[in-house]
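pipeline/complex-builder :: batch 7 item 3
reading input block
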Amino acid sequence: MSVATDFFGVLDRVAESSREQLVLRGAVVVASVAFLVLVPAAGGTFHPVVSAAFVVLAVVVAFLPESHSAVALLLGLGLLWAFAVPRHLDAWLLAAAAALLVVHVACTLVSLGPAGHTVDGALLRAWGRRVLWCWAAAFGVWLLARAVTLFDLPGSGFGLGAALLALLAWVTVLTVRFAMDEDADD
Amino acid sequence: MTATWRPTTALLRAALVSVLLAALAVVLGRPDLLVLATPLLVHAVACVVRRPVEVPTATGTLGVGAVREGEGTTYRVDLEHTDAVEHAVTAVGRHRWTVLRPANGVVSATASGAGRMRLAMAMASTRWGVRPLGDGLVAATSAWAGWQWGPVRLPMRTLTTLPLPGRFDSRAPAPHPIGLVGTNPARRPGDGSELASIRPFQPGDRLRRVQWRVSLRTRTIHVTSTVAEQDASVLLVVDSGVEVGESGGLHGLASSLDIAVRAAGAVAEHYLHRGDRVGLRMLGSTRQSALSPAAGRRHLRAVLETLARVVPGESAGLDPTRMRFRVSAGSVVIVFSPLLSHTAVVTITTLASRGLDVVVVDTLPEELDIGDDRRRALAWRMRLLEREDVIGRVRRHGIPVVAWHGPGTLDQILVQLGRRGSRPRPVAR
């Protein structure tokens, strides 16, 4: 029985969740709503229907953080930002990146164990540091992007090609890694 | 228990979302999307860089294999080769009459870097019996929650819960002690401590037995004679064919089998502590159904373990008239039964007809929840009337029936049986 069809099992798991898990499930919804609020704040267009759909999806993710529905939520929010918000590099962008990160990390921590599993303080502190590192990296990229925008550097075909090559290399690394794991399992 | 490290949903999510957003950023020329993708990209890179190689191994063990009702033990899951493990969690199945701490049976731990991890949880058993425990799963995740090992199924462990014998004490001696040495006053004179009579001296009497006062008064040497002290043989018969009532464990309501098992344990403990020999016989489908009479602490453990293995249910091929109880003459047979099965009644009357002293301990619980169904209540009343009739028939055979109420339950009955044994018996001609 899949996670999505086992409706009562999902409700049971939510009911049996520990306090930390409930907080983390709530954080998924709150961070998603915060991201949706940041879209108009950053100068984007507010779409009530689309936003409502994302809130529903966020609730689904809060109920099923271990499923792949979180991928749809994160990708959807990213696409919403891409198409609803004009190209700006203001501070709202950093807040939006933090919101996406919170959704992702909250899903990760809830999925560490079964319902009722308690996430201890040491682990939470470690993840707090990691979140800071990740966000600091985003801040660095943001600073770099602002510097590039400030100097108004011309568009470069070489730069675009290099970026795509780097991306291709990273995708290749991931593909090879995961393919190796699949072979090992077989 | 072999499993390999697999990428977690978190790693797949971070990799997929970051790659797609980065690609979109490059294609659309939107650096803001790259900023959104960067935290997830960092997470994915950290996971891939810190990919674990060494595979952990897990073993589950119980602190002790046997406990008394209400006692607890520890269930431990030991993980070896945990250098790459950051966090481990185990979830143990919950069973009736088993109390876990934490109550949901989920325990987790964060690695300390010692190369091994231990997940421990306290568990207690609230009812006698042999039950499988420790069935569950264990899983571990690497740093940054990028890779997951397991969940791996833990092997089942068996916990034997010995019945906690009810409080029992008896001041009455066994009616017909026939052993060698013991604490029960026998019928024949011998070297004991119980006064039998003061009689004239006979050759062979010991000097320390001389009763000087009587000797001076009568001018003839008299000695104090004593009766021999012998051990008794007690056979406990537990009727496990029928279980009436629902067991609520140690602190809840007791079923008829609960009462029978705990009472039998209490009586066995009492007589074995006194040095008597105790045998055990089950009437039902329990596989190990008999234990020959023996004495000693080790035998008490064997009796309690046999009682813990009692399974309610009738045995299909059991013919009570042909059963061999391997019980010697002079033994006392104590039958623990709710007197609701034909097998038990025939067994009781058969044992009595063989000339044994039989005592029936009625184990029907006083509090029974029949429910609100009127037809069911009526049926139960009819069953109780039939039972009253059965008890009357058993009593007419000269077999005492007594309800279990702990200390002193058997005192009066055993005294009466002792007197009955010393009385002259009418012989039919």
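note: Chain A has seven helices and no strands.
queue -> next item
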